[in-house]
Amino acid sequence: LVSCVNMAKRLFAEWKVTENNEINANLRRQFYCTAVAEGTTDDWEFVYAEYKASDDTTELNNLRYALSCSNDLILLRRLLNMAIDPEEIRTQDVASTIEWVAG
Fold first, then answer.
1. pTM listed for this prediction
2. Quick one: pLDDT at residue 33?
3. 72 Cβ contact list (under 8 Å, min separation 6)
4. How crowded is the C-beta side of 65, counted as CA atoms within 13 Å?
5. What number of other Cβ atoms are within 10 A of residue 13's Cβ?
């Protein structure tokens, strides 16, 4: 498990630096979640920026799920506040966002 966490953190860090996402599309949800759960506020902000920039529904869901993986209550509260703002999170995604935060 430790080696998987370390690999997720390494690939995530490389993505942040190179802006080239080499993470297998089928594994992104868990990689992103692990990186956010083990990461910093800056990592959460990076995922949020990627979320705002994406127009791919699957990627949006993966990134939104990852935002809910934070252990920082302030960031989770921010995500919940975003969930009630249709400019931030689509109305059809509110229920899953709240569910993911509730864990």
1. 0.92
2. 96
3. 41, 44
4. 14
5. 14
